[in-house]
Amino acid sequence: MILRLEHIGIAVKNLEDSNAHFEKLLGIAPYKEEEVASEYVKTSFLQTGEAKIELLEATHPDSAIAKYLEKKPEGLHHIAFEVDDIYAEMERLRKEGFQLLNAEPKRGADNKLVCFVHPKSANGVLLELCQTIV
Predict the structure, then answer these.
(1) Which of 110, 94, 81 is nearest to 1 (CA)?
(2) Average pLDDT value for residue range 86-100
(3) pLDDT tens for residues 16-29?
(4) Max CA-CA distance within the chain?
(5) What's the pLDDT score for residue 71?
(6) Helix (H) or strand (E) holding 115
(7) 6 burial type by CB count under 10 A (0-12 exposed, 13-18 middle, 19+ buried)
(8) pLDDT band at 134 (very low <50, low <70, confident <90, very high)
(9) What is the per-residue burial (b if ≥16 Cβ within 10 Å, else e) of 113-133?
(10) Which residues have CB under 8 Å from 88's CB, separation 6+?
(11) 33-89: per-residue pLDDT in tens?
(12) Burial class for 7, CB neighbours closer than 10 Å (0-12, 13-18, 19+)
């Protein structure tokens, strides 16, 4: 079951510059930065109420973020929802006819298991399902 909006992912060209920009905009500093080597991305997180903003910078030309920024300007990349059981939610969505980009959940940033729903089956928006690893 989907529990809540977890974060909004924003693709950026330069994480350091974007961190400074969002810190001025929101009046808060990122609480966490990390690199997800398997996805060729550096991330930072800003907490805004109960939801978060994730800034994503590519670390390699083959990353999904680099490919996204080749086609589009910096901006909204994905919307993430926290789920209570990512395996059950993936199975439910498959049965409902949604196209998933992952056959199995993978380790993502912020200590999460993640899976993405293809934008073609979500009105043009890349959706992420995430579950905290315990």
Answers:
(1) 81
(2) 97
(3) 999 999 999 999 99
(4) 44
(5) 95
(6) strand 112-117
(7) buried
(8) confident
(9) bbbbbeeeebeeebbbbbbee
(10) none
(11) 999 999 999 999 999 899 899 999 999 999 999 999 999 999 999 999 999 999 999
(12) buried
Q: Which helix (H) or strand (E) holds 70?
A: helix 64-71
Residues 43 and 120 sit within 8 Å (Cβ to Cβ): no
Mean pLDDT of the chain: 96
Sign of CA dihedral 80, 115, 56, 112: positive
Instruction: Give, in order, the Cα–Cα distances in Å from 54 to each of 6, 21, 103.
Output: 10, 13, 24
Write out the two tokens for 26: 């929101």
Write down the pTM of the prediction.
Answer: 0.93
User: By three-state DSSP, how is residue 75 classified?
Assistant: strand
Rg (CA), the chain: 14
Structure tokens at 101: 């980009």
